[in-house]
TrEMBL record:
Residues 447-567 form the DALR anticodon binding domain. Residues 7-86 form the Arginyl tRNA synthetase N-terminal domain. It comes from Methanolobus sediminis. Belongs to the class-I aminoacyl-tRNA synthetase family. This is Arginine--tRNA ligase.
Amino acid sequence: MFLEFKRQVTEALDIALKSLGYEVDDLGLEPSQHADIASKVAFRLAAQAKCNPKELADKIVAAIDLPDGSLIGAIKTVGPYINIDAGRNYVDNTVKAILEEKENFGGNFCEGKILLEHTSANPNGPLHVGHIRNSIIGDTLVRILKKAGYEVETQYYVNDMGRQIAIVSWALSLFEFDTSKKPDHAIADVYIKANVILNEEPDKVAEIDKRMQLVESGDEETIKSFAEAVEFAVTGIKQTLLRMNVSHDSFPHESGFIRSGAVSRIVEEIKATGRTSDDNGALVVDLADYGFEKTLVIQRTDGTSLYTTRDLAYHEWKGERADRMIDVLGADHKLISGQLKATLNAIGKKEPEIVIFEFVSLPEGSMSTRRGKFISADDLLDQIEERAYAEVDKRRPEMEDEFKKDVASMVGIGAVRYDIVKVSPEKSTVFDWKEALDFEKQGAPFIQYSHARACNILKKAEEEGKWNPAEEIDPSLLTEDTEVDLIKKMAAFDSIIDVCAKDLKPHTIAIYARELADAFNQFYRFVPVVSAEEDDIRASRLALVNCARIVLANALDTLGIGAPESM
């Protein structure tokens, strides 16, 4: 609803300015502590108008003529600023729209096809804590973009022919695979053992190099051994992702771009630019004019391609299938992603939008799959659900075990997702067990509890015959400050989705969900709802509780977090 309000403000200002003989590209609209939206257009036009900004602001306001049914209310000047408040229609229409649109409220204002790649961890073991920020940021962005109205395809790019996979393939020929374990964990076991041997016997590295050459040249037996190793790991990784409420639409494999000839073609395209040269037998690309002193290696001395070369072919393929490409990558990919974009630009291909995130860690320290020093995502989720179960059991000891387990799973996964996504991607963060599960700290459990509270209020009112969800209500009766504040907070949902979709920073929706829960609790704290004496006011306030339930559920769903009806 806020986007429509902003559109009407833009239109009203444009018409007023044209009536005064002025035109401007930017109206200087921005949030304000003193109004629902403010414009500093008088600043921008003062020189052109040869007029004092304050006087110009007064002229502009005097020239505004609002049509019947406008969402705009009071318009005032404060010095050179034009402060604009939403009117009663905005408040009433928001309530009506939420009750009518339900789960569709706040979205479907964008269009276009987006391919978004996230996670894409090497299939040489399970996902660990260092990976899951990628998965959670990526999945939340997918949900935001879909809510905005985009058609989004989510991809996990599978490294099925790099050095690490060659080591796993070699390890499977040496060690017994433990079929009793989750497959990605069993893969990690043999991978760690193989690295011990490679460290102790460096001459064995030649066997790994040989495998990489064989797989790229098309040796069927080696290809089969690589594929078997990858499939084991990816099967387990998918299970972990689904547990975190994360899914992918497709899993393109690196090897496919070798087999199709796409890698060879893109190498020739890059050569045709005149940027390549021989560096001790390796083929490198000069990107100095793009600001990169270091050249990009696209072919090894033995003629095999690198991950980057195959990634270039992958992005060329993606660019032909979507309006936009988005990659979610760790901070260690800053250089290589910049070189990738520059190379694609140099050959006239579409470039991806890159979301770089800093890493999440636990107080226990850093992780490495190769050294066998890591805390798997599975272990993290087991522990967080165990702690969530203890919290639910403490609060609801009378409930059956199945209820406690279901809520603990929802709360535990929600706590992990929220605690990780609430921090802007470019900032590093440490996952704090206690804070994530603290019901009083306004994290995921606080938001989920607010939703459950709304459900409980409505259920109790319906059982007592005080609420009929089909009954028409009069939103104009909702005039208390906390009521209007809550409605305006819900109305802002579409603008939050819009900002997140443009900035590709999902922490904004996390902050919004927390503020929405707080606004709902403030309303319920200060305004009698079920106990309201007048029937029509009680009905309108219960409808407002229902609105809060709907928008809280929408916000939680966009965050990939479950919305329990009871906690």
